[in-house]
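#lab-general

N.A. 3:47 PM
ok so I finally got the sequence cleaned up, no stray characters, all 432 residues accounted for. can someone with queue access submit it? mine expired

B.Y. 3:52 PM
send it over

N.A. 3:53 PM
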Amino acid sequence: MPSEIAVEEVELRTALIALKKEKPTLGVAKIHTLLLEAHPTWAVSEKRVRKILQSEGLVATDKDNGSGPPIATHPVSRLNKSLDVTKWSSKVKVHYFNAIKGKGLVATDKISEGEVLWKEDPFILAPEWDIYDMQKSSRACAFCSTPLGNHSPLHLPCSASVSSTPCPAIFCNRLCRTQSEKVHPLLCPTRNPASVALLGFARNAEWMALHALAQCTSRLLLSAQRDDGTLDEDIQVVQSLAELGMEERFRALRDKGVEPDRETWKKAHELYLWAFKAPKASDEQKKLARILKKPVSESIQRDLFEYDEFLRGLGRMSLNLEAHGGLYTLHSHLNHACTPNVSARHFDQHSALSRMTVVARAAIEPGEELLITYVDPQGDYKERHRRLLEWGFGPCQCERCLIEEREARASGTDIGEADELADQLRAGLGLA
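B.Y. 4:20 PM
back already:
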């Protein structure tokens, strides 16, 4: 193994700036890891990396973060009183538990193990990046994300695409293309070229929450152009989602040494405004005006475009996105347990990949809560707690966690847990 060498300040600073520019959403620990992977012989501490990045204004300083103990916080949610659960299932209902836990789903009838409870299409979809790349290269449906395979006469291009400004979107069939009109026009490079920079920024940073917020904003703005009542319904879906703003999230993690990257947030907000409110180029302004012909109310503009609301929207997306990038109206009501009694599956991989099927993993009695897992259930309780803490949920109090924690304490394996948790947080937290 080669011996480690000291590195000159100028060379180190240049390498760190380049890494941070390439991966703007990563924190100090991840940049440090990437640096050592690229230069395995360099002897550089994480403390030195932090100091240089702070001096360049690329991460927040201690002054920016404030002082004093972290403020206790947790995700909050509200009920969607207009939600008709029977559209999906006759065996579940929404139940509000308390201000800390919020809402959830409980069984209204006996549910058998293996029973399909409901199927659900996404409210919006910001798919995993490999699928997104397939969409951008016309190899997956731009609406439902199903891989297209060989060409079929059923496959249809974006209706706005022209040779001078092509749109790569291809759809499975006429139904997918019709349904895509709820979201696609404002994200189409032909109809709204101002959106290209925002989507490119999200892709380069692998920032799924930003991509999802763009999809959600597009849906709301396009709903505001119709007179069929869908705007109120869509707003209620979004406002009922559990939320924890970006500032609140990092405030809760301040004592773990995890700092926010506010410059990246501000850049994303700038591109977001260019895409949906005020494009820089006059021709882009005209194209956006052709889509948004009806004035958007001041209250909606405030809820969408003010910086604090933008950060709240990012937090809301991150909290509620399903693992494959979908935001689902009923699924978003499910709370966590490390031993879940339901699971979300994607069975329709050749016809409707984004469609979710919720299946009972065990028999569920009336009045019992339906629970999924937010984390990898194969991890030990410390790892599961770390992942939950990243989003303000606090230590899980499910039966499995309590048993494992008691066993760890009895065996003495929990010694140094706080330091280990802090190290893992610094190593593992990005802006997903």
